C-alpha cells in the first residue's frame, strides 16, 4: 500500500464527503501506478488564524487552527478569523483530513471515453453551472474545462481514472 497526495477543489471535497464523488480523472500519467488499496491524501484549500499568516506552512505548529474552504460553501468572503485562503498544494500532510482508499487499480483511458455513469461518479452535476446541462457527461465537460481549460477537453488526452471510497476523515 502506498500513499499519494492529491489536490481537490472545495466543491469536489464536499461531493466526496456526500458520497457523490467516488472517482477522479488526472492528466498526469504518473498516477497509473496507483493500485487498489492505496490511500489518496486530499490536499484542499485551507487557512489558519491571522496570527500564523507570516508562518510558512511547513513551520506551522501541530496545534495551529486549520479551517478548510470546503466547510464554507455559502460564504463568498472569508469567515471570521480567516484573513486569507491558502492554495491546496501548500497544505502540510499532517493537516490532511480526508483520506480515500483506491478500490480498483488506476486505469488509462481517453478523456472523452467517460460515460454518463462515470461522470456521475466524478461528482458532476448541473448545480454548479448556469444554463442547461443535458446530462452528467455535459456537467463533467464543464467542470473539466473550468479546472483544466477548454483546450484540454478538445485535445481529448489520455487520463488516469482513480476509483476510490472515503476511508477516513478528520472533518
Description:
- The chain is of the alpha+beta class.
- It contains four helices and eight strands, in the order E-H-E-E-E-E-E-E-H-H-H-E.
- It has helices at 10-17, 116-121, 136-148, 150-155, and strands at residues 3-7, 23-26, 39-43, 46-48, 66-68, 98-102, 107-110, 158-169.
- Strands 1, 2, 3, 6, 7 and 8 form a six-stranded mixed β-sheet that branches. A two-stranded antiparallel ribbon has the order 4-5.
- The two termini are 24 Å apart.
Report the total helices.
4
| Helix fraction bin | 10-25%
Give the helix/strand class.
alpha+beta
What oligomeric state do the depicted chains represent? single chain
β-strand number:
8
Compute the CA-based radius of gyration: 17 Å
Q: Tell me the series of helices and strands, N- to C-terminal.
A: EHEEEEEEHHHE
Largest sheet: 6 strands, mixed
List keywords for this structure.
single chain; 171 residues; alpha+beta; six-stranded mixed beta sheet; 19% helix
What's the structural blueprint in terms of helices and strands?
Layout: E1 3-7, H1 10-17, E2 23-26, E3 39-43, E4 46-48, E5 66-68, E6 98-102, E7 107-110, H2 116-121, H3 136-148, H4 150-155, E8 158-169
Outline of the structure:
By secondary structure, the chain is of the alpha+beta class. It has helices spanning 10-17, 116-121, 136-148, 150-155, and strands at residues 3-7, 23-26, 39-43, 46-48, 66-68, 98-102, 107-110, 158-169.
